[in-house]
Design a protein that fits this description.
The chain has 264 residues and is of the alpha/beta class. The protein has one domain: Rossmann fold, CATH 3.40.50. Helices cover 36% and strands 15% of the residues. The chain has helices at 13-20, 28-40, 44-63, 84-91, 104-113, 132-136, 162-174, 194-205, 216-222, and strands at 70-74, 96-101, 121-126, 149-153, 181-187, 227-228, 234-235, 256-262. Strands 1, 2, 3, 4, 5, 6, 7 and 8 form an 8-stranded mixed sheet that branches. Helix 1 (13-20) packs across helix 2 and helix 3 packs parallel to helix 4. The longest helix is centred in the N-terminal third of the chain and has 20 residues, at 44-63. The N and C termini lie far apart (39 Å). The model has no long low-confidence stretch (mean pLDDT 89).
Length: 264
Amino acid sequence: MTIDRLDTGVAHPARRYNYWLGGKDNFAADRESGDLLAKSYPAARIAARANRAFLQRAVGYLAGEAGIRQFLDIGTGLPTADNTHEVAQRIAPESRIVYVDNDPMVMVHARALLTSTPAGQTRYLEEDLRNPAKILSSLEILDLSQPVGLILVAVVHFLPSQEEAASIVSTLLEALPSGSHLVMTCATTDFLTPELKASWDESLRTGRSDVHPRGRAEFEQFCSGLDLVDPGIVAISEWRPDPEAEEHPTPVEASLFGAVARKP
């Protein structure tokens, strides 16, 4: 794989997210897209940081309290501080992680930067969430007879169709054994003021946004048949918040639903 296949003239969610987090691995199209979205949703950058913090807390829970040693992280995004394998392997060095993303730039950086502990393993798969069967057939380092932490953080909301999204999540979960966990976040307008919601809807209608929010009932559908881990489905900033964190966003600022749920 080479970075030559990148289309730098088209914004990509992973690079836009990198821009919001203050990273340098992005292009003009990503910055322009990020700025346009931030006009309709001013707290976009805060939400990006809150989403990252949720991921770290959730992975810490899985590796610690839940005893998960295998992770499938789809929609990885560009590497930054405390990636999934770093959080998991700090707790359990033998943890194995497969990262999946559809941006070649993510894969180039991942292979260079996401190095495993000697006791564990990491692998990188360039694939699209919309092809769950291909993802599931390429997980050589994961033992699907043992529990897996499936991580779908800020990725499902790029699928416009709830029916398609629910089917994909169900397909992935069906392939995983009892004791596996789903870690998921998804944008929502449920917490927004009517003015902010109208602005978000307008940005979707005019094509300035590719983020399709879900209401609570739609988010609950993804967790159907699973046992929700306390505190259940909440704004990401309210899922087991770290009292020592520097930032404590409100649900309006961190307008994503988050949940961790166990497959019985």
